[in-house]
Amino acid sequence: MIDFINKTLSKLFGNKADRDLKELVPVVSQIKEAEVTITQLNDDQLREKTSEFKKRIQDYIVATVEERISINDQIEKNPTMEMGTKEDLYRRIDELQKEENSKIEEILNEILPEAFGVVRETARRFSANSEIRVKATQHDRDLSVKKSYIKISGDDAIYSNTWMAAGNSVTWNMIHYDVQLIGGSVLHQGKIAEMATGEGKTLVATLPIYLNALAGKGVHIVTVNDYLAKRDSEWNGTIFEFLGLTVDCIDKHQPNSDERKKAYLSDITYGTNNEFGFDYLRDNMARSPLDMVQRGHHFAIVDEVDSALIDDARTPLIISGPTPKGDSHEFFALKPRIENLVSTQRNYINTVIADAKKKIAEGKENEAGLPLLRAFRGLPRNKALIKFLSEQGVRALLQKPKITICRISNVKCIKLMLNFILLLMRRITLLNLQKKVSI
User: Fold this and answer.
1) Which of 117, 180, 277, 414 has the CB geometry, 3.0–4.6 Å to 176, for a possible disulfide?
2) Which residues face 152 on adjacent strands?
3) Are the C-beta atoms of 93 and 68 separated by less than 8 Å?
4) What sign has the CA pseudo-torsion 238, 240, 243, 244?
């Protein structure tokens, strides 16, 4: 009956996935409308859209940001401020922070069609041209020093559509499909987008990454292994860098280093879930804000989210300090001694088992119990012992010395208790005599 009702409701109203899809279809139409104008821009004008988007975001939140900064200055300049007043101001700062985040989300949703259109048009131009020549900026000049596929020729920067990613030469030949635009919208909304292998998860992610990086508060791309983190940062990085954003990967740098701190200051930061987690733990242990590497968390995309948040989450991140002697350990000195000790014990237990078998064969079963117990305590997983104990009546012999030892132990305990009681009674009698004498 319940199944029938569910099927009927699904036919009338559709399931949750269908309803969500219907809400996202108009977004694709808005992106295509924005692309009509975007495709007419030259390469320099296309790149300038990033600065335009950033200005629109800053203009939208400027009042909130200025009020927050003003309150912070007020607190710093008045160290003798009453605690009640200071708490009210801090409460107001928290409210302004929430308001700022809410406004950023509003303006990003407004910019989304154009931003997605810019990324798709950039991908299309890199796919259609082996080189793209644009007016060189300082950002381009800095990149050309580190990356061979970006060259400076006079006042121009020349971007090649072939570059190195994870040690392999790749030529950009990908353009976003309409369904991938929907996937990008889903990720921007903070929802989980399930895509099969080969459907272009890496390409889909470029859309919300670019959009949320425009806020200037950083975007984290969390992957499950360092190879994917390094590869994707280099594979997609050129598209973002062409549009004026900075990209880095924390797995390329040592923990607590200036390079890693700089990586977190990039617009887009790739890394593994473990490295992000350990950096977060180290920052919580830092004694000064200057020792912290991460900045405030704004937006993150988690690749293979089921693995990162469910499977890997079963293994806790445990942070610890280095050993005092570094690589100088006593392991190699103790290893041969321990091996010799284990070997000696194994040989002794084999001798004890042979002795027990001999006594049983001679009919001295009462004497065989103690060697069996000694062997069981010394090497309980010995294969020869396990096989021998599985024979009929042998395990019963093992129990007899156990019971005897328990009886002896109990007798000792009873004797000790009686001796303690007797000693206590003597002390009490002695105290009573002393009192009588003093009287």
Assistant:
1) 180
2) 157
3) yes
4) negative
Both tokens assigned to 25: 């279809």
Q: What is the DSSP letter of 215?
A: T
- Note the helical H segments in 129-200: 138-146, 178-188
Cα separation, 243 vs 116, whole angstroms: 12
Rg of the Cα atoms in the chain: 37
Residues 87-118: tens digit of each pLDDT: 889 999 999 999 999 999 999 999 999 999 99
Q: What are phi and psi of 89, to 5 degrees?
A: -70, -40
Asked if residue 43 lies in contact with residue 193, where contact means CB atoms within 8 angstroms, the answer is no
Six-digit token pair at 332? 């190699």
Structure tokens at 330: 């006593």
Q: Which residue has the tokens 């040690």?
A: 167
Domain extents for the chain? 2-128+161-314, 349-438
Q: How far apart are CA 6 and CA 15, in angstroms?
A: 10
Instruction: Provide the b/e sequence for 251-267 (b: ≥16 CB within 10 Å).
Output: bbbeeeeeebbebbebb
218 in Cβ contact with 266 (< 8 Å): yes
Give Cα separations from 125 to 129, 235, 265 (angstroms). Answer: 6, 16, 28
DSSP letter (8 states) at residue 250: G
Two structure tokens written together for 125 = 């131009």
Instruction: Please write down the HEC assignment for all residues of 302-342.
Output: ECCHHHHHHHHHHCCCCCCCCCCCCCCCCHHHHHHHHHHHH
DSSP string, 360-391: HHTT-HHHHHHHHHHHHHH-TT-HHHHHHHTS
Q: What is the pLDDT of residue 439?
A: 44
* Residue 216 DSSP symbol: S
Tokens 């048009």, residue? Answer: 121
Report residue 163 as tokens. 């570059």
Q: For domain 2-128+161-314, is the CATH number 3.60.21.10?
A: no
What pLDDT, on the 0 to 100 scale, is given for residue 313? Answer: 67
* Residues 293, 266 contacting (CB under 8 angstroms): no
CA 412 to chain centre: 57
